[in-house]
């Protein structure tokens, strides 16, 4: 297995609260009840992909979200930080079929945070750099597709789109 350096992308955003509101509107939560219902009744994969496709207007959903700063303020830190697990089951499956280790990097981890100077940021590790590290061309190809989907999401959200997402 070959290794590739992971590339972290930090994108300036107008404010934590404004960007977070736009991000959460564009990337809805996983429709857990509907998905669990399909799994319980052993629905076919086509039904599951139909649900996921209808729930992801920009190709991603939020699997989990949390605020890190309330806890870390107890230690004296002032930085604001919200972290997310963002992804898509049907895209992940296209990698999982080649190697279950892809779940090390799917869903994607993202953070919306504020630095000590008060600047707001959206940060994510570039998907293709994680998945290329597995050394499986089919998985790398899906990682590049995720780069493009992430670029489209950032463009929709009105932020700078890092060139790396368009050149992978």
Q: Can you tag this structure with a few keywords?
A:
168 residues, 5-stranded antiparallel β-sheet, 20% strand, globular
Query: SSE string, helix = H, strand = E?
Result: EHHHEHEHEEHHH
Strand content: 15-25%
Number of helices, counting only DSSP H or I runs of 4 residues or more: 8
Structural category is alpha+beta
N- to C-terminal distance: 20 Å
Question: Can you describe what's shown?
Answer:
The chain has 168 residues and is of the alpha+beta class. The chain is built from 8 helices and 5 strands; from the N terminus they run βαααβαβαββααα. A 5-stranded antiparallel β-sheet has the order 1-5-4-3-2. Strand 4 and strand 5 form a beta hairpin. Helix 5 runs antiparallel to helix 7. The longest helix has 20 residues. The protein is globular, with a radius of gyration of 17 Å.
């Amino acid at each position: 297995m070959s290794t590739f350096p992971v590339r972290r992308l930090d994108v300036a955003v107008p404010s934590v609260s404004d960007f977070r509101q736009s991000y959460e509107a564009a990337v809805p939560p996983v429709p857990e009840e509907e998905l669990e219902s399909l799994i319980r009744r052993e629905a076919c994969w086509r039904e599951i992909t139909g649900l996921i496709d209808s729930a992801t207007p920009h190709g991603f959903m939020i699997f989990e979200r949390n605020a890190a700063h309330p806890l870390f303020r107890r230690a004296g830190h002032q930085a604001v930080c919200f972290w997310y697990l963002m992804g898509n089951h049907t895209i992940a499956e296209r990698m999982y079929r080649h190697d279950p280790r892809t779940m090390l990097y799917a869903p994607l981890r993202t953070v919306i945070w504020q630095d000590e100077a008060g600047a707001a940021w959206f940060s994510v590790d570039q998907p293709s750099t994680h998945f290329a590290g597995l050394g499986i061309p089919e998985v790398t190809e899906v990682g590049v597709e995720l780069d493009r989907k992430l670029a489209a999401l950032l463009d929709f959200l009105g932020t700078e789109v890092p060139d790396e997402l368009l050149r992978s």
